[in-house]
Each structure stands twice: as structure tokens, then as C-alpha cells.
Amino acid sequence: MDLFKALVVRKENDDVSYEVESIKQENLDEGSVLIKVHYSSLNYKDMLATQAKGGVIRRYPMIPGIDLSGEVVKTTDESFEVGQEVLITGYDLGVNHTGGLAQYAQVPSEWIIPVPENLTLKDAMTYGTAGFTAAQSVRALEQHGMDPKLDQRILVTGASGGVGSIALAILVKAGYQNVTAMIRKDYQEKVVNDIGAHQILWADDIGEKKPLLLKNTTTS
Hints:
Layout: E1 4-12, E2 15-23, E3 33-39, H1 44-48, E4 67-75, E5 85-89, E6 104-107, E7 113-114, H2 121-143, E8 154-156, H3 162-173, E9 179-183, H4 186-195, E10 199-202
Parallel strand pairs: 8-9, 9-10
Antiparallel strand pairs: 1-2, 3-4, 3-6, 4-5, 5-7
Helix pairs in contact: 2-3
């Protein structure tokens, strides 16, 4: 394979730097499937990967990018075939294994799933890891009793962010009628209103900043 482009993060002493470099396949971590990357979404975690104390990358040098979509160009696993459209979210991608911010990625086949028939490669990364996380969250809550047919009040924290904004959109689209968006900054108000939030709650109006950290109490 000829040289191809990748964003490479390097660390020397306490200094972290990153730039687009020309690399070879041998610079990628090992894997049974070689993918030509078409898209990778940018997540908050990817930004942290470029910071000196981001706490994301486990070893250097590293190609960040915690998700990707693309087509298989080489495989030793018969579960996949050349030309097949696939995607990956999570696992060690972009953390401890060279990730999606490159023209090619080489990964274990166990991390890969085929792109669903109703999604394009671009769609898959438009939703990306944030969309997948939001969908999983809504599904888990519905499995525990959340239902658009019930008169339930739902609060979405970080409602203008990646996961929060998609979760908000899913809830509104699913027919929930009492969805409150929690925000912190003025410009976020228009964002959540455009998505369809029914109410807005400002984070500064809450006395306890981290209610989930409160100790459990028992009443008799």
C-alpha cells in the first residue's frame, strides 16, 4: 500500500503535539480487517486525545478517532468481504489502538458491524458514537418503564451537546410530551428550542450541582 494520511498525536516528555502525517500500513496496529475510512465523527473524547492531560490516549504515538465508517479492502475473516460497508464505535479505537482519523484503519473483526441497510456511510457517522450512546440510553430507560403514553416528566442534561441533543431529538420524535432540556449558556437556548424541547432548565438554577453524587438516604 502507498503512503496515506493520518492525524498522529505524539508525546515527548510532557509535551503533546499532533499533525497530519503520511504513514504506511505497518504504522497501523494489528487487525484482521483493513478498512478504507470514509468518515469519522469528532467527539469530545477526540478533542481530549490531543491534550497533554486529556486522559484518553493510553500510549503514543496514536491516531485518534473513536469511531469510523468505511469499506473493507482486505480481510482474513470470512465474516466480512471486500467492498462491504462497515462501521465501528468504541472499543479501544483511537485510545489504545490506531483510530478513525486516518484514510485507513486496521482492526479486529470483533469490533466491526455492517452498516444497516437504511443508513449510508455518512449517515452512520453523522449520528456517530454520540447518536449510538443516546439511542442506547433512551432504549434502556424505556426498558425500565419510560413510555410516551404515560405522563412522565423527562430531563435531558447537557441537552445541547452531542449525546444530549440527539437524545432530545429522539424523545421528541418518539412522542414524549414533557421533555425538559438543561443548558448552561445563552446560545444553547436556541439550539434546544429548535430541536423541540418543551421546557428549559438552567443549570445555575439548581442548588445541588451534582445530585447524583449525593449519598443514598433511607427513610422509614
